[in-house]
Specification:
The complex is a heterodimer of chains A (about 110) and B (about 120). Chain A is mainly β. Chain A is built from no helices and eleven strands. Chain A starts with a strand and ends with a strand. In chain B, the strands form two sheets. In chain B, strands 2, 4, 5, 6, 9, 10 and 11 form a seven-stranded mixed beta sheet that branches. A four-stranded antiparallel beta sheet of chain B has the order 1-3-8-7, with no helix packed on it. Classes of the chains: A mainly beta (about 110), B mainly beta (about 120).
Chain lengths: ~110, ~120
C-alpha cells in the first residue's frame, strides 16, 4: 500500500501569510493527488485534484504542485476562513490512502 | 445540486452488523464511481471502499476487506455499505462520496455515525 505523509502536522500562521503544506508518497503516484479542507464537524471539501487543478468555486489563492512522490499545497494569502485541517489523498492505486492531516491554526 | 444523504448509522455491539445507505440526487448516479470514507472521533480521514459506475468493480481498504461490502442500486440511486463482524475500531463517522476527476472525491455527504460498543 502507498503511505502518505504530511508536514508539518500543525502550522500556526497569521491572516495574510503565505503558507505551504507538503505531502509525500511512499512511491510514485504520478499526479493522482487531491487536497481537501475540513472544518470541525463538517464534511471535507475538495480543493485540488490531479495535483494542480483547482476545483470549481475554490479561491485562486489555493494552488497545488508536484508530481511523483512530492507535492505541495500553497495558500498565497491566508484568510480567516482558511483555518482548518488539510488532507492529501493519493488515488493512483488501490487502496487509496489519505495523509494524516495538517492543522492550520491562527497564530 | 449534488446531494448525498447517508442513513443507517447507530449503536451496534461488537461482532454485529449494520447496513449504511446513501441516497444520491442531483446527478446521473449511474455515471459515477462512488466511495465510502470514514473518520474515527478526533482522527483523520480513512478511505474505506469504492465501487465503479457500473458496479462491476469494487475495492476495499485492508482494514475492512472481507467484512464490508459496497454495492449500488441504480434504480434507486442508492449506495450501500454492508458492515459485518464490526469491531470497536470501526467506530467512526462514515461519509458517502461521489468520485470525479479520475477518482478524486468531489462531493461528500454529511456523514452518519457508527458506534461499535457493548
Amino acid at each position: 500500500d502507498i503511505q502518505m505523509t504530511q508536514s508539518p502536522s500543525t502550522l500556526s500562521a497569521s491572516v495574510g501569510d503565505r503558507v505551504t503544506i507538503t505531502c509525500r508518497a511512499s512511491q510514485s503516484i504520478s499526479s493522482w493527488l487531491a487536497w481537501y479542507q475540513q472544518k470541525p464537524g463538517r464534511a471535507p471539501k475538495l480543493l485540488i485534484y490531479k495535483a494542480s487543478s483547482l476545483n470549481s468555486g475554490v479561491p485562486s489563492r489555493f494552488s497545488g504542485s508536484g508530481s511523483g512522490t512530492e507535492f505541495t499545497l500553497t495558500i498565497s494569502s491566508l484568510q480567516p476562513d482558511d483555518f482548518a485541517t488539510y488532507y492529501c489523498q493519493q488515488y493512483n492505486s488501490y487502496p487509496y490512502t489519505f495523509g494524516p492531516g495538517t492543522k492550520l491554526e491562527i497564530k | 445540486e449534488v446531494q448525498l444523504l447517508e442513513s443507517g448509522g447507530g449503536l451496534v455491539q461488537p461482532g454485529g452488523s449494520l447496513r449504511l445507505s446513501c441516497a444520491a440526487s442531483g446527478f446521473t448516479f449511474s455515471s459515477y464511481a462512488m466511495s465510502w470514507v470514514r473518520q474515527a472521533p478526533g482522527k483523520g480521514l480513512e478511505w474505506v471502499s469504492v465501487i465503479s459506475s457500473s458496479g462491476g468493480s469494487t475495492y476495499y481498504a485492508d482494514s475492512v476487506k472481507g467484512r464490508f461490502t459496497i454495492s449500488r442500486d441504480t434504480s434507486k440511486n442508492t449506495l450501500y455499505l454492508q458492515m459485518n463482524s464490526l469491531r470497536a475500531d470501526d467506530t467512526a463517522v462514515y461519509y458517502c462520496a461521489r468520485n470525479s476527476f479520475g477518482d478524486a472525491i468531489s462531493d461528500w455527504g454529511q456523514g452518519t455515525l457508527v458506534t461499535v460498543s457493548s
